[in-house]
Structure formats: structure tokens, C-alpha cells
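User: Some background: our group keeps a shared notebook of sequences we're curious about, and every so often someone picks one and asks for a predicted structure to add to the entry. Today it's my turn. The entry only has the sequence so far, pasted here. Could you supply the structure so I can complete it?
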Amino acid sequence: QVLNGFLIRKEAKGHGRGQYLEGVREPGELKAVIVEDVCSTGGSAIQAIERAREFGLEVVGAVCLVDREMGGAAAIEATGCPFASVFTMGELLDL
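Assistant: Of course. Here's the predicted structure to add to the notebook entry:
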């Protein structure tokens, strides 16, 4: 199966195509997973989910390496997007 990568910018570039989403020209029927390194409040992941949906992608999940357990998981799931983390901050502190 082919996997496509793309990125979502916080601000649209002031030149070129001036888009928030780079790496996909046409959404077609593409499904997307939002990947973050660390999740605190979930704000940047939620912004990425919204922008990907606005572009026409079907966001099927969000994942992060470390969930800092500051409410981000619940905030992301409140958008209707399943969320998973590889580690929680509590798990890392217990190591």
C-alpha cells in the first residue's frame, strides 16, 4: 500500500501556492493520520486536524510519541478523531 506524507504549516507561506497543507495536490479519497512528537493541550494537533479536513482529507486518527497528560487527548477526541500515544509522561517518569 502506498503511504503519502504531507505537512501542515502553522502559517501559510507568503509565496508559491501559499497553502497551509504541502505535499498533496488533490485530496481524492485520502485518509490521514496526524502525527505529533509531544501532545500537551492538543492545540496544534486540533489545528492540523481542522486544516486537513478543510482540505478534504479524511482524518482517521492522531498519534503522538509522548502525551504530557495535560488534557490534549480528550480535546483531540472531542473533535471526533481517535487519539493514541506511544508513551504518557507518567509512564516515562516511572522508568
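Suggested note for the entry: The mean pLDDT is 90. The helical segments are 43-55, 72-77, 89-93.
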